[in-house]
């Protein structure tokens, strides 16, 4: 049995890990889009490193686009097997992949209208038809259900607490009478998340693929999230008379923000300004979350006893059309705009930042992980001038962050996730989905906790699992 790492290897995006059995059965764990990697992004997304048509099964940990975003291309290149995921993941992946296809088709159409003589026509990575085909190949496996994919291959999902539907993947593979247990963490959430249940413990594994996004960080903010939001919004909107622009992922982060703002209203502390969610995808994702109340933690269930809609409050408006979105930039009144994408690399939020970055009365509030070369990453690094749509903009707006809102666990959460494992019985622990320097720090910490064989795979590197 072998495993190869074709994405999220010494980086945090493009998750793809391929297990190949002795009988040539191939199991692909995730099939994510590379994002925010600068000029090489398109090249990385155009080459899998394996033959899509030879993949037998695909297992999807969750619906974030860096984990599911190349599934339609996998299908377009010949994959015809089943895709296993939770029901909530299927619901979310459908809208996220369709949105991705729409953006790619529009971008290709725009580029092709401006072709110079001799230039090659641009093609989208996939179309909406590829998305429809990918969704048709999905098979639902719910949490804690021992599911036999085929004789000798059993699958079990446990709740990873990262986003709605997110799962850690546990495979039990029997070859030549020998049983091997492989766990893929997917992305691990926070213990004590605002909305979701904490990550579940899992049975002993022989091999572990472990995410490491925040493997050298602790999400310790001095103040609760509600208090920090109140301070930033009140200072920006009521005192400086400016706007708060919040780049937020459509799935997970936007709903957490709405829940926290709703909490301020329940305490009569919500600043009286307009609040806009400027992302049709976020609107859809919020509705899907409402349809899956089984994922809520006890705190949310208690709030639901006094408030039937925990994602709605006075002054909130969901923006749909492009015209309405543009109008927000022409309106100088104080307000809060929550818009995708979370790394500020694409989407409507990039326009909002461009239009508001040059005024010191405004605030750009980052609430999640940003790949260092992305616009959000450059803003968080304190760059004084940033490139937006090929023009340089001086950063005069205040840049703030709430690190504790990350959907990724910090190193204490990651160690907690592994706490049910006997390190002596783990043959290898592979660190994926992290920046290399961060992974090196986390590897040292894991070794201090008894995990002897910690490996940081390189892009396309293959290992023999015996």
UniProtKB/TrEMBL annotation:
- Keywords attached to this entry: Hydrolase
Pfam family for this entry, one? RMMBL
SMART domains to which the protein is assigned, alphabetical: Beta-Casp (SM01027), Lactamase_B (SM00849)
Q: Source organism's superkingdom?
A: Bacteria
Is Hydrolase one of the keywords? yes
**Gene3D superfamilies reported in the protein's UniProt record:** 3.40.50.10890, Ribonuclease Z/Hydroxyacylglutathione hydrolase-like
Do you know which CDD domains this protein is assigned to? TTHA0252-CPSF-like_MBL-fold
Q: Indicate the segments forming the Metallo-beta-lactamase domain, all copies.
A: 13-233
**Domain Beta-Casp intervals:** 254-379
Q: What is this protein called?
A: MBL fold metallo-hydrolase
What species does this protein belong to? Answer: Pedobacter punctiformis
> What lineage is on file?
Bacteria, Pseudomonadati, Bacteroidota, Sphingobacteriia, Sphingobacteriales
């Amino acid at each position: 049995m072998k495993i190869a790492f074709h994405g999220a290897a010494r980086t945090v995006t493009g998750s793809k890990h391929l297990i190949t059995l002795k009988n040539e059965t191939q199991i692909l764990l995730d099939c994510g889009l590379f994002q925010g990697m600068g000029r090489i992004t398109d090249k990385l997304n155009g080459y899998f490193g394996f033959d899509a048509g030879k993949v037998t099964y695909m297992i999807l940990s969750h619906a974030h686009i860096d984990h599911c975003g190349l599934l339609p291309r996998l299908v377009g290149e010949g994959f015809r097997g089943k895709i296993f995921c939770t029901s909530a993941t299927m619901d979310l992946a459908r809208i996220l992949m369709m949105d991705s296809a729409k953006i790619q088709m529009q971008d290709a159409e725009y580029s092709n209208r401006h072709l110079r003589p001799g230039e090659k026509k641009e093609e989208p990575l996939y179309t909406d038809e590829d998305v429809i085909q990918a969704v048709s190949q999905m098979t639902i496996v719910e949490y804690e259900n021992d599911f036999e994919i085929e004789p000798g291959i059993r699958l079990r999902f446990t709740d990873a607490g990262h986003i709605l539907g997110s799962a850690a993947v546990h495979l039990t593979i029997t070859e030549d009478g020998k049983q091997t247990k492989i766990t893929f963490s997917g992305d691990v959430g926070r213990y004590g998340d605002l909305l979701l249940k904490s990550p579940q413990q899992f049975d002993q594994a022989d091999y572990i693929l472990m995410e490491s996004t925040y493997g050298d960080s602790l999400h310790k903010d001095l103040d609760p999230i509600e208090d920090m939001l109140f301070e930033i919004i009140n200072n920006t909107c009521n005192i400086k008379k400016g706007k708060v622009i919040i780049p937020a992922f459509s799935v997970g982060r936007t709903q957490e923000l709405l829940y926290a703002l709703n909490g301020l209203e329940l305490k009569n502390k919500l600043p009286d300004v307009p609040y806009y969610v400027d992302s049709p995808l976020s609107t859809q994702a919020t509705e899907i979350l409402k349809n899956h109340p089984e994922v809520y933690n006890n705190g949310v269930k208690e709030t639901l006893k006094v408030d039937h809609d925990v994602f709605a409050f006075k002054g909130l408006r969901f923006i749909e059309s492009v015209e309405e979105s543009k109008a927000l930039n022409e309106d100088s009144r104080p307000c809060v705009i929550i818009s995708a994408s979370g790394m500020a690399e694409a989407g409507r939020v990039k326009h909002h930042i461009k239009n508001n970055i040059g005024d010191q009365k405004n605030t750009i509030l980052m609430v999640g992980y940003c790949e260092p070369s992305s616009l959000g990453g450059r803003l968080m690094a304190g760059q004084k001038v940033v490139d937006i749509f090929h023009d340089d903009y001086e950063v005069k707006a205040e840049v703030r962050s709430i690190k504790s809102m990350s959907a990724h666990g910090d190193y204490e959460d990651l160690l907690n996730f592994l706490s049910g494992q006997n390190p002596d019985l783990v043959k290898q622990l592979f660190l994926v989905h992290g920046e290399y320097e961060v992974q090196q720090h986390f590897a040292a910490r894991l070794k201090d906790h008894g995990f002897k064989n910690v490996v940081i795979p390189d892009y396309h590197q293959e290992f023999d699992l015996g």
